[in-house]
Amino acid sequence: MSKPVAKPPTIHDGCPQPRPEWVPDAAGAGFTTWVMQGVRTAGVEATPANPRPRRKTLEIEDYVRGVIARDLTILGRAITLVESNASRHRAKAQQVLQELLPQTGRAKRIGITGIPGAGKSTFIEALGCNLTQQGHRVAVLAIDPSSTRTGGSILADKVRMEKLGRDPNAFIRPSPAGGSLGGVARKTREAIMMCEAAGYDVIIVETVGVGQSEVTVRSMVDCFIVLMIAGAGDEMQGIKKGIIEMADMLVINKADGDNRVRCMVTLAEMKRVLPYLNSSSAGWKTPALLASAREGSGIAEIWRVAGQFFKTLEATGELGSRRREQAVEWMHALIEESLRKQFYEREDVRSRLPQIEHRVSEGQLPPLAAALDLIRGEAVTAS
């Protein structure tokens, strides 16, 4: 029979150990990062565990030197820093990015999206391995879906890309979507900059899947590739949602075995449709291509066409223009995020919000009236 070990003096809300430094300041008791005491058998003296040495706290210069030197451990910690929601990390992360800014902007940024089951991870691994064999250094920022109930994420992309993960010229960073729009983690843009500063010349961003909001990834990459599969009913759905019109390249994946004939039929259909759609980039006509990520067929052709895409956009000036527009759009998104955070941290909003939510849920108050009153800081009148 075992009994709990006596707890040492509490530090946080009755929990025996402090939280890791990356935990958000306002995290409640439901944020599962407490370190709990174990149990020991009665009558048996527990062997004191050797405390794990704390990692060295990195200063701004350490991050900058480590990222530029392509130290993967420090690169991973730098990305963790920019992904952190803790207010004490934000200023530090921005200072690191400011120092690294001259080293960024030289990579080809590629976004890859597609419905679940389109084979995105397999396709990225095949493409990444093809690129590293050509001497490229590839960074993959794989966004995994987060649970809407627990906030948890499996982060299995690195496991699925086992071969690419062992490649010394590749870096794979799985991140939870965290409920952010388009399945793209909130700090993915800054992670792209970190990888560019570390010398990766091809950055691949994998999104959760295709949906109305999935086009958010389009605002942070140069080339947007949409993966499709035959017989999934997503051909016309993709057109209806406008996904196809935002694609710079359309790839019919899984064109192998008995499925190859169906993929060729889908390819022909898309080639008939594409000329009638608006082009995503000035001077570029979106092509439809066939590939089998499992067999590796079509991958080299896809990269050859991607090379033509970048040459075309560089010649027309569209590539530089797109990046400038993306930077401004990014700034506005950060402003909106900051204002939203400041609003919900206001004391008057925090004190009145539960009551107003109750009245809205009970149909006693129109949602718009409640929102406007909260924004103005006025008392909500009875309906």
Explain this structure.
This protein has 383 residues and is an alpha/beta fold. Among the domains are: 19-25 and 55-103, Single alpha-helices involved in coiled-coils or other helix-helix interfaces, CATH 1.20.5; 104-315, 3-Layer(aba) Sandwich (Rossmann fold), CATH 3.40.50.300. It contains 13 helices and nine strands. The protein has helices at 60-68, 72-83, 87-100, 120-133, 157-160, 162-165, 188-197, 234-241, 260-273, 299-316, 318-345, 347-361, 367-376, and strands at 2-4, 39-41, 108-114, 138-144, 170-176, 202-206, 223-228, 249-252, 288-290. The strands form two sheets. The chain has a seven-stranded parallel sheet, with helices on both faces. The chain has a two-stranded antiparallel sheet with strand order 1-2. Strand 7, helix 8 (234-241) and strand 8 form a beta-alpha-beta unit. Helix 1 (60-68) crosses helix 2, helix 2 (72-83) packs antiparallel against helix 7 and helix 12 (347-361) runs antiparallel to helix 13 (367-376). The longest helix is centred in the last third of the chain and has 28 residues, at 318-345. It is globular and about 60 Å long. It starts with a strand and ends in a 7-residue tail after the last helix. The model is unreliable at 3-13, 146-155 and 236-241 (pLDDT under 50).
